[in-house]
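Checklist before submission:
- one chain only
- standard amino acids only
- sequence pasted in full

Submission:
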Amino acid sequence: MTSPQVKTYGNAIGGRWSESRSGALTDVLEPATGEVLARVQRSEAPDVDAAVMAAAAAQPAWAALPPVERAGHLLALADVIDAYADELALLESRNVGKPIRETAQLDIPGSARCLRYYASWADKLYGEVIPHNAGHLLNYTRREPLGVVGAITPWNGPLSIAMWKIAPALATGNTVVLKPADLTPLTALRLAELASEAGLPEGVFNVVTGRGSVVGQALVEHPGVAKIAFTGSTEVGQRIMRTGAATFKHLTLECGGKSPAVVFPDADLDLALEAALFGIFLNQGEVCAASSRLLVHSSIRDEFVGRLVERAGRLRVGPPIDPSTEVGSLVSAGHRRGVHDMVGAARAAGARVLIGGEPIDGHGNFYEPTVLDGVTPGMEIVQQEVFGPVLAVLSFADEDDGVRLANDSAYGLVANVFTRDLSRAHRVAERLQAGSIFVNMPAIPFTEAPFGGYKMTGLGKDLGRSALDAFTNTKSVVVNLGGTEMFSWFDGGK
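Returned file contents:
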């Protein structure tokens, strides 16, 4: 169904809105209703080239700005996001299918906070002085921007995850070409409008929409792009890595996850229960850090799982824009089919459905909150990312067994530990193979802390001070203050 007033967005290139060279458009659907929300450009490689050229033209002047002025631009954009927070939260909720309580309380405020955090770093990109035995040498380092950054972002957190790339890139003097997910590009395009309203210089931030296989590929292949900052599937991350090698791209790749939550018998079970619900049913489980493997000590398994199932049965599934909704719609019909196929395969392999396990009839792409028991470590549902509201429950016998099961994964993004024993918490955190460990709390990325995983989860870190390194080059400068003895090798025929 199409609304009579459907907005058509152009690409945001060099401070202007432009149609794609082909003129082709793509309908953007509302997952919960099937309604057409907007139409966007189905761009191709020439459109990417135009955006990269605009970003490259703007980058020297942007980098040359005093850092405090760059920071001022980021702060102005954060203020504009705050001013339009309600509009952005509604747009994000409708485009993704996630409950508006999440977009209003987490996604949009988090995006503004990310800008403010990196604005505070813009004038603190310090180098260092390196001492030498030769006293007449001055050796220091400089932190310099890479140039043009290509940001390729996922459909599950379109604005907030994009900001993980945009904010540190701009703070360090780079310019950005953003390729949002083709299913959920609307808040990225609205951000481009707000960036102009906030006074961001033309060409500093550009947005090109289209399919990943075309637009994303063109960004990765483009010789004018110095870095790709990507969040998405492991398979796509691998392709980016292979393609980017041809031009020695700097890469940050945050890919898949299959994160464990380990509940020990001495845990605060009320706290662990709420964290487990948050960890798997936030954004319908469409979260890279979702705690989709629940490992419960055998002595408390029946009690804990019974309580979990009861609480899952009371979750409010409904329209994303309803403030009372706790679980919204999956992003597309195709994705819902994929989730259901994985649940069906688990059933066929011997898993028991304790609750859920079925699509919800009617309009939209809703799926029941699902808890599976009777799974084994080798099952697909335990090893592969579902990206939906599906929790697989396993039990363990002791600490070593729990750690072994938690690490039995190709991925290593986050892990959760629930225990009252502080010694155990630190001991287990050290042994877990994951980039972020959360003790007695759900996995919540904080702007101030690095976020990125081990193993097949990818390369590099988003967020925190670590991200600044990912968007800068370090240059060493050596100055001879007087003296030739170190390099007087030739006597000139004397």
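Reviewer check: The chain has two domains: 2-255+457-477, 260-439.
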